[in-house]
Write a structure and sequence with these properties.
- The protein is α+β, with helices and mostly antiparallel strands and 520 residues long.
- It folds into two domains: 177 residues, Dipeptide-binding Protein, Domain 1 (Dipeptide-binding Protein, domain 1), CATH 3.90.76.10; 209 residues, Dipeptide-binding Protein, domain 3 (Roll), CATH 3.10.105.
- It contains 18 helices and 19 strands.
- The strands form four sheets. Strands 1, 8, 9, 10, 11, 12, 13, 14, 15, 16 and 17 form an eleven-stranded mixed sheet that branches. The protein has a four-stranded antiparallel sheet with strand order 4-5-7-6. It has a two-stranded antiparallel ribbon with strand order 2-3.
- Helix 10 packs antiparallel against helix 12 and helix 17 runs antiparallel to helix 18.
- Keywords: Signal, Transport.
- InterPro entries: Peptide/Ni-bd, SBP_5, SBP_5_dom.
- Belongs to the bacterial solute-binding protein 5 family.
- This is ABC transporter substrate-binding protein.
Length: 520
């Protein structure tokens, strides 16, 4: 079987990255779990061991049902609570989790072999029936179906308690990246059926290294170590996620020792944290891309490519990145992040306001036609919208800006639609198919080009690495020339940690694996 496995794995992008069988998110035999109460050489031997990890983030989880939210804050909590069939190690390679091995049966069938010693936090044993239930549910539920709509839950077949054939409707190259995401979490079928989605989302039952204990709305979520976990146990006793919306307050909490890890460190707080011997700042390029998107499908005045190109030419992208991010982002050179596979650098039209105005005149654009520019309420997005407004108004355009919360934003996107929006998109799975999500999001309306549609389908259906790379290289070039959106910035993921925190692994998707942390 192993010969067949090695031969077939070469056909699949992410499977080619499988290097060894390790535990889910805990498979490295590194420094992680050998010192759960570790102390430095200067520490007082009589001091009580630190056994609570406190993480501060800027927004609260929406719920902890992995198939019914799209929140990064939720994803990070879920990563600790649930197991998945496969996981990713710190280098982004696919490694075993609930599944110990797998083989490609055919282009639309993957057989997974499960561990026989996994138990949910309520004491029930995890079996292939729970996996089938989770796949079928993920295919249908609102928060996960963008990833799992290509999974065929109905025809996924349970062979026995530890063997399952997962089916996809068509060849689907992102399959392993999507299974390793928070949306690929395995839920307890009996508990979900008896509790219902709403109750389960507030009192989740997983099988992961930490188990849910408490949620105080607007304040914190608390997890406790699962001492019955099948894999390596976490080094601390409790994990607390606290919500602090203000950037400066998160930094102060870290410096004061009230938090061990802080997410979303603002640029203005970096120097203070770096100069403090008790704290350090870690930055990595993220999977996120910030863009100005044009809805050329619903709005007539944006359908002429010359108009979209002119609007792009009127934007000083380098100036925007420098003014807003101050070194915590780079100017985007493609439609998705440079750390996502198959990224290629593309030449994007240069800033030339006079040429932009001339091109608008050539296209017969009505300068009295107001351009409605919409964003959600993050500080960076609002700052970008203000700069974009000024740049477009400088060439004689009329621009109206508005800031919407997510509920209003998403509803208005669907009906009647939004003409121009600031998009901050995090392709947290790290798959290029996810990187093109905005080009498949019908409500965004960034294109109606059959060639783009064709290449998007080819990209997700092609398993061979070299072929997939060629498809995505062509697709990036075509999308840049279409001007459905103008990529502005590739942002960094920036974290602050206390100096006694060890085993921290930064994540480009801002969905940290906190199970390897220990203290010194």
């Amino acid at each position: 079987m192993m010969k067949k496995l090695r031969r077939l794995l070469a056909l699949v992008l992410t499977v080619a990255m499988i290097l060894s069988i390790t535990a889910c998110g805990n498979g490295k035999e590194a420094e992680t779990n050998t010192a759960s109460t570790g102390s430095s050489s200067n520490a007082d031997a009589s001091a009580p061991a630190k056994d609570t990890l406190v993480v501060v983030t800027r927004s609260e989880a929406t719920n902890l049902d992995p198939h019914n939210n799209t929140s990064l804050s939720s994803f990070m909590v879920e990563r600790a609570i649930y197991d998945r069939l496969v996981d990713k190690d710190e280098n982004g390679f696919i490694v075993p989790c609930a599944a110990t091995e797998w083989e490609i049966v055919d282009d639309t069938t993957i057989r997974f072999h499960l561990r026989d010693d996994i138990y949910f936090h309520n004491g029930e044993k995890l079996t292939a029936e729970d996996v089938k239930y989770s796949i079928a549910r993920a295919e249908k539920e609102a928060g996960s179906r963008t990833f799992f709509k290509f999974f065929d839950g109905a025809n996924t077949e349970v062979i026995d308690d530890t063997t399952i054939d997962i089916k996809v409707y068509e060849p689907f190259a992102p399959v392993f990246n999507y299974l390793s995401s928070a949306r690929g979490s395995i839920v307890c079928a009996s508990a979900m059926e008896s509790m219902g989605s709403d109750a389960y989302g507030r009192n989740p039952i997983g099988s992961g290294p930490l188990k849910f204990t408490e949620w105080v709305a607007g304040d914190h979520i608390e997890l406790a170590r699962n001492d019955d976990y099948w894999g390596d146990k976490v080094a601390y006793k409790d994990l607390i996620f606290r919500v602090i919306g203000e950037d400066a307050s998160r930094a102060i909490e870290l410096e004061s020792g009230g938090a061990d890890i802080s997410l979303y460190i603002a640029q203005q707080d970096i120097s203070s944290l770096e100069s403090n011997p008790e704290t350090e700042v870690i930055s990595v390029p993220s999977y996120a891309t910030v863009s100005v998107a044009f809805n050329s499908v619903k709005f007539d005045y944006l359908q002429d490519v010359r108009v979209r190109k002119a609007l792009a030419m009127a934007l000083d992208r380098e100036g925007i990145v420098e003014a807003v991010y101050h070194g915590s982002a780079t100017v985007a050179d493609s439609v998705y992040s440079s750390v996502i596979p198959y990224h290629t650098s593309n030449e994007i039209v240069s800033y030339d306001p006079e040429a932009a105005k001339a091109l608008l005149e050539e296209a017969g654009f009505d300068f009295s036609q107001p351009i409605k520019l919409v964003t959600m309420g993050s500080a960076s997005a609002v700052a970008i919208s203000e700069i974009v407004q000024n740049m477009w108004e400088s060439i004689g355009l009329s621009v109206e800006t508005s800031i919407l919360d997510w509920a209003v934003f998403s509803q208005t996107m669907a009906d009647p639609g939004l003409p121009v929006i600031i998009l901050d998109s995090n392709a947290s799975s790290g798959d290029p198919d996810h990187g093109f999500y905005n080009w498949t999001w019908t409500e965004a309306g960034v294109h109606n080009d059959p060639l783009i549609t064709e290449l998007l389908e080819k990209g997700k259906q092609t398993y061979k690495d070299d072929d997939r790379a060629k498809i995505y290289a062509e697709l990036q070039e075509v999308c840049i020339d279409y001007y459905g959106l103008v990529p502005i910035a590739f942002t960094d993921s920036t974290f602050g940690i206390r100096s006694n925190v060890k085993g921290f692994i930064p994540d480009s998707g801002n969905v940290l694996d906190l199970t390897k942390i220990h203290f010194e």
